[in-house]
Design a protein that fits this description.
Layout: E1 7-13, H1 17-28, E2 35-41, H2 48-53, E3 60-63, H3 71-81, E4 86-89, E5 95-96, H4 98-111, E6 115-117, E7 121-124, E8 136-139, E9 148-152, H5 154-161, E10 177-180, H6 181-191, H7 200-211, E11 214-218, E12 223-227, H8 232-238, H9 243-253, H10 271-285, H11 295-307, H12 313-327, E13 364-365, E14 370-373, H13 382-393, H14 403-422
Parallel strand pairs: 1-2, 1-4, 2-3, 6-11, 7-12
Antiparallel strand pairs: 4-10, 5-12, 6-10, 7-8, 8-14, 9-11, 13-14
Helix pairs in contact: 1-13, 6-7, 7-10, 8-9, 10-11, 13-14
Length: 432
């Protein structure tokens, strides 16, 4: 029997020991000798090194740069230390599910896919004051069919070119996704490295589409997508006054090692702008004819997103877009005249932290959407959340149940867990 392929999980981190510990605990509870955990500690000044040392798992490897790196370069450092045949990247406030891991292993053993996508379960940490509700796990049972399907990547890339995608995770993901080594090396041959874009996960999700003809969509979650007060992505979109806001400022200030000229200024507060930036770099490095890109559609998407951004970021973003277009002799389109505008200070939105919540959030359960709220000892961090998810979702197999039957079983287990939590009796953790 052939040896099982090694799967490396990358966890780049910087000054987030409070969430990193529970994240690593979700990985340590996975019973798999062919798992490699690579933590890249980017010049942290908190207890990150001690947190990693406390895990005491021989599968864990710690790497650290000699000096602080840009986020993209820290991702690349972690990847350079990984030895896996497959690679997954997650954030330091995310988690891995033992049940989903078993489903992923079965899929890899049966089909040896080039790329595997899944929907991570969204979890808001109780410590995130910038969110309207703290400590919430959301499960959509109709997304958890337990099966998988093959997806051709060419139509997805065509949708990126046409500006028809809604979010970058419609690509082929290594962040909360699993990518084989040949795909990684194919991207490296084009860029000289794998992580190249200002937003490393965004660039990889697009480039992977041209490095593999197909991917597999797994209808079992393998990971938990955490949103904490430290989250750079959450702060970037929500303009919060949490610790994540410092990460955003740091991300803007620290440019990664350049791979060609970035197409757009990285300080534009627009996810669509970051996606367009990464797309144009992929077009350039893979030799895609630039006329295939519907630039007008992308400019409309960016302008629409900036319309919903508070001041002063909205006016600043429009000015940067207009200046970039003018410098390249392009039609400013929806940004015409923005270069002459001055952001009025009177319209600036004050950045303040939301007051701590004093009342526990309510559970809300339907067969199609399960929303479980944290209680003491229940969903208090991503480790507890992973244990609960494994108990509620099961082992990732259909078990002979129809799709409706599986939804009903997940819903029933979630109701029992919610009732136990409200009664002060925390459900027993599931076996890893």
């Amino acid at each position: 029997m052939a040896a099982a392929p090694l799967i490396s999980v990358l966890v780049p981190t910087r000054n987030r020991a409070a969430v990193l510990g529970p994240c690593l605990a979700t990985l340590a509870r996975i019973d798999d000798p062919d798992l490699e955990i690579v933590v890249s500690n980017n010049a942290s000044t908190d207890d990150t090194a001690e947190t990693v040392a406390a895990v005491r798992d021989p599968r864990l490897r710690l790497v650290a740069p000699d000096a602080p790196l840009a986020m993209t370069d820290n991702f690349e450092l972690a990847l350079s230390a990984a030895r896996g045949d497959y690679v997954i990247a997650i954030g330091d406030d995310d988690g891995m599910l033992a049940s989903g891991w078993r489903a992923l292993r079965r899929l890899i053993a049966a089909e040896q896919p080039a790329i595997v996508n899944w929907r991570p379960l969204p979890y808001v940490w109780p410590s995130d004051p910038a969110r309207p509700v703290d400590g919430v796990l959301t499960i959509k049972p109709h997304h958890l069919g337990g099966g998988h399907r093959d997806v051709t990547t060419a139509p997805i890339f065509a949708a990126f070119l046409a500006g028809r995608i809604q979010r970058y995770r419609q690509g082929a993901n290594i962040y909360h996704g699993c990518v084989s080594r040949p795909v990684i090396e194919a991207v490296r041959q084009r860029f000289g490295r794998y992580f190249f874009a200002n937003a490393p996960d965004v660039g990889a999700a697009i480039a992977n589409l041209l490095a593999a003809p197909a991917l597999v969509q797994l209808d079992t979650p393998v990971s938990i997508g955490g949103s904490s007060r430290y989250s750079t992505g959450t702060a970037f979109k929500r303009f919060s006054g949490t610790a994540g806001a410092d990460s955003v400022a740091q991300w803007i200030a620290e440019a990664p090692t350049p791979v060609g000229a970035p197409t757009l200024p990285r300080s534009i507060r627009s996810i669509q702008a970051m996606t367009f930036d990464a797309l144009m770099q992929v077009v350039d490095h893979f030799g895609v004819p630039p006329e295939r890109v519907d630039g007008a559609a992308w400019l409309r998407k960016i302008a629409h997103e900036l319309d919903g951004v508070p001041e002063p970021w909205r006016s600043e973003g429009r000015q940067l877009m207009a200046a970039w277009l003018t410098a390249r002799g392009l039609v400013a389109g929806p940004f015409a005249g923005a270069e002459a505008a001055t952001p009025p200070d009177a319209q600036a939105v004050p950045v303040e932290e939301t007051a701590p919540r004093t009342k526990a959030a309510a559970h809300r359960l339907t067969p199609w959407r399960i929303r479980l709220a944290s209680r003491p000892g229940f969903l208090a961090d991503v480790r507890e959340t992973a244990e609960l998810c494994d108990a509620v979702i099961g082992n990732g197999e259909g078990g002979g149940l129809s799709a409706v039957g599986r939804m009903a079983a997940i819903y029933a287990r979630a109701r029992r867990a919610a009732a136990s939590a409200d009664a002060g009796s925390v459900p027993a953790p599931a076996a890893a």
